[in-house]
Each structure stands twice: as structure tokens, then as C-alpha cells.
Design a protein that fits this description.
Strand order of the largest sheet: 2-1-3-4-5
Helix content: 25-40%
Oligomer: single chain
Length: 131
């Protein structure tokens, strides 16, 4: 590793599957450097649910442990997702920064236990200020 180059800061994206197009947009913003330099995203791509809850938890925990922060995409049904709730509770237990961002055109609530957090607009300029 060259001196002077910082390790990338990884941001875990927590979302419900039907909001995947927004996750893809956010990943593009990170790749294009619109959310700041030296930041990368990590997100769940594989659906482990058919293997049971323990398999999902075992798969997610190391990803969350390695993240600098968690970006939760808040859409219509985010508050109903057991996995978003799990990801945010693990992130809280690891003292990770949690940022909630509102998917445009949606009105769903923030996940339970995180409704005290502000919800920011889901756009690159807002996210740039938050990380």
C-alpha cells in the first residue's frame, strides 16, 4: 500500500428488495465520486432467506462490522422489513453511524427503534454532507 493513500471508507446500504433500483442509483453515485472521494458501498446481493434466519445473520454481520457507516434507504415498506431492522440493530450495537435517506415519492415510516433519527433526501449532494 502506498503511503498517503487512505483505505476506502465502506458504506453498507440497507434496503428492501423492491427498492433495489434506488440502491443501484446510490452505488452509481459512489462509483462516480458524487458522494465524496475514497468511499465504496457494500450491500447484500444474494438472497439467503431460503437458508434460514441464522444463515442470513451469519452472512450480514461481518459486512456490517467492516462498514464505516450504514445508509438505510427508507421507502414505502422499509419499516416492515425484519432484515432492515436486523441490519440497523447490529449497526447500532457496533456503534456505527446510521443515516436514513428518503426514497423520492415514498411516505413509509423509518424502521422501528430508529424513528428518532432524521430522514434526509436521497440525493448525492445530501449524502455528500452526511458522510
Amino acid at each position: 500500500r502506498k503511503s498517503g493513500t487512505a483505505m476506502p471508507q465502506s458504506i453498507f446500504i440497507s434496503y428492501v428488495y423492491e427498492d433495489k433500483p434506488y440502491r443501484d442509483n446510490v452505488e452509481r453515485w459512489f462509483e462516480q465520486g458524487k458522494v465524496g472521494p475514497n468511499r465504496v458501498t457494500i450491500a447484500e446481493f444474494t438472497d439467503f432467506r431460503q437458508h434460514g434466519d441464522r444463515a442470513v445473520e451469519t452472512h450480514l454481520k461481518p459486512m456490517l462490522r467492516g462498514a464505516a457507516a450504514v445508509l438505510c434507504l427508507v421507502g414505502q415498506n422499509t419499516h416492515n422489513s425484519q432484515w432492515v431492522q436486523y441490519e440497523l440493530s447490529v449497526a447500532s450495537s457496533l456503534n456505527k453511524k446510521i443515516i436514513l435517506a428518503r426514497i423520492p415519492g415514498t411516505t413509509g415510516a423509518a424502521p422501528p427503534h430508529h424513528q428518532h433519527l432524521a430522514i434526509y433526501p436521497l440525493d448525492p449532494s445530501s449524502l455528500l454532507k452526511l458522510f
